[in-house]
Fold this sequence. Notes:
By secondary structure, the protein is mainly alpha-helical.
Amino acid sequence: MQFTSIDFILFFVLFMAVWPLTRRSVRLRWAYLTVASLVFYGWWDWRFLFLIAASGLVDFAAGLAMEAYPRRRTLWLVGSVLANVASLAVFKYLDFFIANFNGLGALLGADWALPAGELILPVGISFYTFQSMSYTIDVYRGQLKPTRSVLQFFAYLALFPQLVAGPIVRASDLLPQLERVRPTTEAERFEGLRLVVYGFFKKMVVADTLAPIVTGAFSGGTVAPDAAYWWLIMAMFAYQIYCDFSGYSDIARGLGRWLGFDFPLNFDHPYIAAGFRDFWTRWHISLSTWFRDYVYVPLGGSRSGAPMGHRNLWITMLVSGLWHGASWTFVLWGAIHAALLSLERLTAWPRRVGALPGGRLAAVALTFAATLVAWVFFRAESLAQAVAVVGRMFSFAGGDTEAVRAVIREHRLAVYLVVAMMLRHLWFGLPLPRGAENETQRSAPVRLGQAVALGALVAACVFMRGPGSAFIYFQF
């Protein structure tokens, strides 16, 4: 059930019609959230419900067992982590492992050929698995007391606004919010509206307009020879994936606001980052902080010196790349970011460049250019195609510019949208306001201007929307 579908709009209207009646009891609210969220998730395929239920019950039981039998809490944690990793390995990575195993056999001259599993990838499995794992790890560390209510646990794990594509919410943040029963304020409702409308605009107008152009560029049998063409295509993809994913996060956060929940910020203008450490504090923040807290730091971080710090950084980024998809292109995407982060640690180039006149803008431009090159490996259909595209991007001698002129001529709206998003990022004076609690104290003309702007965005979603497509991160 996609946020942009009529099915979801009807589902949410019906959900909100009953929601105020649950204020009488927190347990009633947990039960209602759980049932509604499972209906939402099962809309794709009812068989997925068995997997999320099994994953959740394992971690719920592990949390209680760690409290009841503290001397064996390591055993319970290992069992929980292994169960979650096994779930990912089977449903997300089994075919990848089989294909590589068969490929290795062919190189060695062996005649084995394991059949592919061809299992359906459950929507959002990577997101809710990581969210569930963080619960048991935090309980093990003593940072969280386990909930004794299975309804509260599943209301946390399966909460439908952020279930399928994040943000990944920690139990320590959301479980306390689930214990409160209170009406939302006017400021919260207005902030929710603003987030939902802007999220719909980013997805339906920007991302869905750019998607066919990018898909067309990568689906052809040949790679266009023009360097400018591929830089333009990758800029389009950069804003396609940003508006697609951050649009989902905005809608999820807005829906959460309407329900009285505060989900963490997941994107903070990533394309104005001056360096890659800065980029990863702005891009998919809930995932980057998850890998920092549950992979990088447990490995030792940089506490054992620079060489071990680089090793741990590389392990974390390679695992992050593999998390995004069962393909060597994703692993290489993670490796490129690891190399860029290591280079930044060794040279401190963002600080050095930033100290020069105009250095901040130069650092942003360099970071954005390198990000576009890395995005090639994320988007390409194959490793060979990725290498060919990168080769074209850096082949500035000669070349036919007709391809890029054709894109600009035939897709003016898409070009304008990319330029507008670039300017919005560079301006940085126009992020979504975070002090929504003061909204009612703002002047009437400001509030009128905001209402007009939201109305314009709604009109754009109706009359300027691109061809509908699934959210990109549903595949992860």
